[in-house]
Amino acid sequence: MNLSELREEVENCKKCTLYQSRNKLVFGVGSETADIMFVGEAPGYYEDIQGEPFVGAAGQLLDKLLRSIGLTRQDVYIGNVLKCRPPDNRDPLPEEIEACVPFLYKQIEIIKPKIVCTLGNYATRVILGKTVNISAIRGKKTLGRGYYVFPTYHPAAVLRNPNMIATLERDFQEIKRMLQEKVEVPPPQPEQMELF
Ligand code: URA
Ligand code: SF4
Question: Tell me, what's the pLDDT at 184?
């Protein structure tokens, strides 16, 4: 299966109630062969209108951070845990995450990135499969299922707390370094395959 086939499947998804209130599906954007994938939480107001992730204020910050390490959104892949916008940007519900996250795993399977950079608590918890706190583990690379997981702050959180910006910028410099290193990712261990 490729990304456009998967997109078609997700366009028709009714696995949770969010398809009823959304405008556009926000499947994801970028390169099908990207070395790095960024994962946010869920579409917001502008994403829902345009059908593209990270196009609002948080997205402008993400674009700027990418530019700071010589990348554009066409060089990477950007997606979210949820593909449909929760009404009024409320937090995702556990049942919505459970319903939607298999699509994220399929995107990762197709793209096969070396690094999955999780933005904020929701993406980090979903990808690591455990309840962690982003401030405790951000900037620490761990081995995932055939890729490295690199958690950092969500750009929207940084917009609310400008004192976090320097840390986020430093994490992007670390991402640049990891990409230049051309890290070889060890194959997934059996116990990691059982996580999901
Ligand atoms: N915040 C997210 O988590 N994802 C988006 O696509 C936009 C804002
Ligand atoms: Fe389906 Fe995900 Fe949209 Fe829910 S949020 S309807 S699971 S695509």
Answer: 79
